[in-house]
# Entry
Amino acid sequence: MSRFNSFVVLALWALAASPALAESPAVRPNIIFIMADDLGNADLGYRGSDIRTPHIDRLAKEGVLLESFYGEPVCTPARAALMTGRYPMRYGLQTLVIFPSHTYGLPVDERTLPQALKEAGYDTYIVGKWHLGHADKKYWPQNRGFEHFYGNLVGEVDYFSKDRGGVIDWQRDGRFLKEPGYFTDLIGDEAVKLIEQQNPAKPFFLYFASLAPHAPYQAPEADKEKYKSIADPNRQTYAAMIDALDVQIGRIVAALDKKKLRENTIILFASDNGGPTKRALRDRRALGRGADSSGGRTVDEREATPVQCAIPWRQGGAS
# Structure
């Protein structure tokens, strides 16, 4: 966890640990952390990309941009750092990701961000990808501080069938589901529903953990059609996946506005790590684009990876 990523994580932890949160409900902002997965550092509209992301661009325009924001090189360490506020090497998750065959997870003696926020009176929700342990229920998000979980436990799954190796990895609060629909659309639906049902008198923490645009590269045909001008079919699909994520982010913000919760909601948007520029395809063509030669990441990379981070908060003066 780099010093720049540490700033955001520690700020969240400081907020969670503040006695004022428990003592004065008026000062408790809602928190939505939107994490993209393997998003190239230059693959957003406001970064000059040909991929259209108007809703993310708006968050960037209205908020604070952290232009020197660095993350972990792969999925599990990045998520572990966010959940604990500590370097992954402190508890053995600093190397590669947790694969389906692995039986370990985020150690249960690590206190997590949702646990701290729950103690401060927050409702805590996660929709999307967990990737911090699946082999034992003690590692599952609903046993690590989240009151509600809708999504998958392992790393990547098929975006449409939600299976990996023929095994369904899609659940709602411990009940596995065989459910039609596109991954990104489904977690967007769930996030909107949670906001619509939220008691305005109680603060909430929503961790929107997108799988997109992580492999496998899959998108609805209608979304791919928007990028038919891109000759490379793989890059076309990658663009469509980011576009679909942007649409769901727009729906989340609209739901906040409709519920009149936007003014007191901190929205953080970031990627877990950079785009997989050196291993995206077997022929080694790049999908994710970095702002420079270090804008992506590989499995072997051990240094910090530049990623995007935008933090809009109207009441807090960030916009």
